Amino acid sequence: MSILIRGAEDFLSSARTLETPLTPDPEAFLKEREAASTFHTEEVPLGSLTNWHLGDRISHSSGRFFAIEGLSVRTNFGPTPQWYQPIIVQPEIGILGILVKRIHGVHHFLMQAKMEPGNSALVQYCATVQATPSNYQRVHGGRSTPYLDYFLDPGPRVVVFDQLLSEHSSWYLYKRNRNMIVEVPEHEEVPAADDFTWLTLGQLRGLLAQGNRVNMNARTVLSAIAYATPNPSAGVAREPDGFHGEIVRSHRSGASDDALASAMTWLIDQKAGFSLDVKRIDLPRMAGWICDEQGIRHHEGRHFRIVGLSVGATSREVGTWAQPMLQPNPGNVVCFVCRRHQGTLMFLVQAMAQPGATDRVELAATVQSTLGSYRGPRDLPPLAEVLDCDRSWVVVDAVQSEDGGRFRHADTRHLVVRIPDDQVIEAPANYRWMSLGLLNRLLRLGYYVNVEARSLMACLL
């Protein structure tokens, strides 16, 4: 336990360090690495993809990477009791790992400037290692994955965080990745390879506030970071000011064993109360969807499309490739509502059932929605009215990309709305107020906090 607490103190010090001589200008580094390579992406017919077979399912000729199948869903969660949809099936468990090291007295994170074909801003910071077994076993015949051994065999290094966590459960079926933070001793040399650089949490905070600079896979790892009491020996002798100070205090509050037990009992009640019957079916059997050589799309143009993409990138393990991509309708939004209760900043979360969730129900943000998929105002999710709140209540507002390796132009507006302490919120029974400390503790237990909520938590660093 002392290792985690000491690490949390160091994370707070790193979060308040806004500059480092190792990377004086993180924006300039991104632009430099983007200029050092050439990139090309082009939407092409799904039936033209080399090494991919389009039939009852979409699959790669190697039998690896991922497939796209049809899904039949029945549930008592939400307004729609039954529907059909395509879904990505990727049973491989990838590694999302970040190396951290104390440099000049401050913890730095080794981040990679990486091109992903689906990103609106193609090159963004990602984790030190972001790779599936198909990638790092080099099924594609490309280059090896740098720094992989630090996570496959950490040895005497400190594993600060290591947990299997879910991915986008509306678009993936039972997808999990291993999220890791590994601390390297100060005396161990870790040279930064091309496209890699060391950043402080303070620099990452600044990039997250701007949006579309830190990719989804890095955000899910960063969401595991928690703050503890400042460490005077590190030169941090006082509480942070303003909203950041409230975030730190929320990380330290409400995470007792009793609070955890109460929250888990409530969440188990929610899981028991919601039914979710999911069946994998052939793509042509999906009612309401058109499947042909051009692509897969909803007959009303709602939700998302499955498109083909031709990609070229000189900085990737393979120079050229083609693959299917899921392209959602615009209007993705994820929003936390928070307010102070008895001196602690609390966040309103919901228990949400999603068809691809490993354990049926996970905690989600107050609002999680693709607004472009709704027919009208009556279809909007509960509490969607907070999206039109007084602008003075908004404390976080940035557009972030989702997994650019599987999703094309999937940009999600990340909002945190702090309402007045006396503001009354009428929420359904599957909603509950929680501190960041409690959310972080649940996150560390596995499949309790969904990836959209974790992404928003990372923006609160």
Automatic annotation (TrEMBL):
GO terms for molecular function: lyase activity. Residues 28-224, 263-460 form the dTDP-4-dehydro-6-deoxy-alpha-D-glucopyranose 2,3-dehydratase domain. It holds the Pfam family Hexose_dehydrat. It comes from the Bacteria. It comes from Embleya scabrispora. This is dTDP-4-dehydro-6-deoxy-alpha-D-glucopyranose 2,3-dehydratase domain-containing protein. InterPro entries: EvaA-like, EvaA-like_sf. Coiled coil: none annotated.
